[in-house]
Automatic annotation (TrEMBL):
The lineage of its organism: Bacteria, Bacillati, Actinomycetota, Actinomycetes, Micrococcales. Belongs to the binding-protein-dependent transport system permease family. CysTW subfamily. SUPFAM superfamilies: MetI-like. Keywords: Cell membrane, Membrane, Phosphate transport, Transmembrane, Transmembrane helix, Transport. Pfam families: BPD_transp_1. CDD domains: TM_PBP2. It comes from Microbacterium terregens. Residues 147-356 form the ABC transmembrane type-1 domain. It is a multi-pass membrane protein. The gene is pstA. This is Phosphate transport system permease protein PstA. Part of the binding-protein-dependent transport system for phosphate; probably responsible for the translocation of the substrate across the membrane. InterPro entries: MetI-like, MetI-like_sf, Phosphate_PstA, Phosphate_transprt_permease. The chain crosses the membrane at residues 31-55, 61-83, 95-122, 142-173, 185-212, 218-235, 338-360. It is found in: Cell membrane.
Length: 369
C-alpha cells in the first residue's frame, strides 16, 4: 500500500500594504493656482522694481502685470501637466487665457468709468442740476437745459423707432419666411447698422430742409436722426429674441384655435419680452451719447426749450463738447462742466438700464406653478 504525502506549502510572503486611494490624488489643491499667481506677480514686481531703481524711473506696473500673467500661464501649464496630466494642464491654460482676456477687456471700461466719475463729481452741484447756461459767462450755470433736451429727444426717438423696429422684426420672423421682401428688408437693415452717425444727421437735416428751408434746427430733427440709428439695432435684437421662442408654443396656440395675431400678442411677445427690452435699451444706449448728428439737427443753445418742434435744443453730449471746445475764463469751470455733463449722461444710461431690467422682470412670463 503506497502512502502519498502532500507537498509542503510554500512559505507565505508578507503583504505590503498599498497606500489608500484618495479622490485628491493627482490634483492640485485649490489654493495652488492662486499661490502660483501671487508668486509670479511678486517676482515680476520685484524684477521691475530693481530695473526701475537701476534706471531711476517709475515702476512699470502695467508691464509687470503682463509679464506676471505670461509667467503664470507657463507655470500653471507645466505644474498642472506634471501633477494632473497634460489634459488638465491644457484646461488650466485655456482657463487662464480666458480670464486674462476678460480682465484685459475690463481695463478700458474701468479706466473710462473711473476717469469720468473722479472728474465729473467735482462739477456736480445743486446749481448744475437746476440751472441752464442762459446769461452765464465763466463760472456758475448748469446743464438742466441739456438734461431736459437729452430726455425729450431720446424719448421721441424711441417712440419713433421702437414700433417700427418691433413690427419689422415680427414680420421677418412670423410672416416673411423665405420671401424676397423679407430678404430685402434684412439686407437693408444690415446696411443701416453700419451707417455713420453723421450720415443719419445729414439725412434728417436734408429731409427737414426740403420743407422748412436751409438752416433749420429743431429738436424733432435730432429725434429723427437718432431713430434712424436705433431702428436697425431694435430690428436685429428683437428678431433674434423672437426666433428663440419655441415653435411648440405657437403650435399649441394654433391647435386651440387662437388666431396668429393673438398668438403673437399673447404668447410670442410675452415670452421674449425680457430680451426685447434688453435690445431696446441697447439701442437707446447706442444713440443717447451721439454728438455729430445732434450738432447738425438740434443745434446749440444756452436756454431751456421744452418744445421739440420749435427752436434749437441742447443735449448733454453737445453740451459737453461745446464746453470743452469753447473754453472761456476761467477755463477750469468749462472743463468741470464738460466732465459733469459726461457723468450725468452715464448716470442716466445706468438708470434707464435698471428700469429696463425691472420692466423685463415684471412682464416676463411666470414659470412657477
Amino acid at each position: 500500500m503506497t502512502v502519498t504525502t502532500a507537498p509542503p506549502a510554500p512559505p507565505r510572503v508578507p503583504e505590503i500594504p498599498s497606500p489608500p486611494l484618495r479622490l485628491t490624488n493627482g490634483h492640485l489643491p485649490r489654493w495652488a493656482p492662486w499661490a502660483i499667481l501671487v508668486g509670479t506677480l511678486a517676482l515680476s514686481l520685484l524684477a521691475f522694481t530693481v530695473i526701475a531703481m537701476a534706471g531711476q524711473t517709475d515702476v512699470n506696473v502695467a508691464g509687470a502685470a503682463v509679464v506676471a500673467a505670461l509667467a503664470y500661464l507657463v507655470f500653471i501649464l507645466v505644474i498642472s501637466s506634471l501633477v494632473e496630466g497634460r489634459r488638465k494642464g491644457v484646461d488650466r491654460l485655456v482657463t487662464g487665457v480666458v480670464a486674462a482676456a476678460f480682465l484685459l477687456a475690463m481695463v478700458p471700461l474701468v479706466s473710462v468709468a473711473w476717469t469720468v466719475v473722479t472728474n465729473g463729481v467735482a462739477g456736480i452741484s445743486a446749481e448744475f442740476l437746476s440751472h441752464s447756461m442762459r446769461n452765464v459767462v465763466g463760472e456758475g450755470g448748469g446743464a438742466l437745459h441739456a438734461i431736459v433736451g437729452t430726455l425729450l429727444i431720446t424719448l421721441a426717438a424711441a417712440i419713433i423707432s421702437i414700433p417700427i423696429g418691433l413690427f419689422t422684426a415680427i414680420y421677418l420672423v412670423e410672416y416673411g419666411q423665405d420671401r424676397k421682401l423679407a430678404r430685402g428688408i434684412t439686407f437693408l437693415v444690415d446696411v443701416m447698422t453700419g451707417i455713420p452717425s453723421i450720415v443719419a444727421g445729414l439725412f434728417a437735416y436734408a429731409v427737414f430742409a426740403i420743407f422748412f428751408g436751409p438752416g433749420i434746427r429743431l429738436g424733432i430733427m435730432g429725434s429723427v436722426a437718432l431713430a434712424v440709428l436705433m431702428i436697425p439695432v431694435v430690428v436685429r435684437s428683437s428678431e433674434e429674441m423672437l426666433r428663440l421662442v419655441p415653435n411648440e408654443l405657437r403650435e399649441a396656440a394654433f391647435a386651440l384655435g387662437v388666431p396668429k395675431w393673438l398668438t403673437i400678442v399673447k404668447v410670442v411677445l410675452p415670452t421674449s419680452i425680457a430680451g426685447i427690452t434688453t435690445g431696446i435699451m441697447l439701442s437707446i444706449s447706442r444713440v443717447i451719447g451721439e454728438t455729430a448728428p445732434l450738432l447738425i439737427t438740434a443745434g446749440v443753445t444756452a436756454s431751456m426749450n421744452y418744445d421739440l418742434f420749435s427752436g434749437r435744443m441742447m443735449t448733454l453730449p453737445v453740451f459737453a463738447y461745446s464746453q470743452y471746445m469753447n473754453q472761456g475764463i476761467p477755463a477750469q469751470a468749462y472743463i468741470d462742466r464738460a466732465w459733469a455733463a459726461a457723468f450725468v449722461l452715464i448716470v442716466i444710461v445706468m438708470v434707464l438700464n435698471l428700469v429696463a431690467r425691472l420692466v423685463a422682470k415684471v412682464f416676463a412670463p411666470k414659470t412657477g406653478r
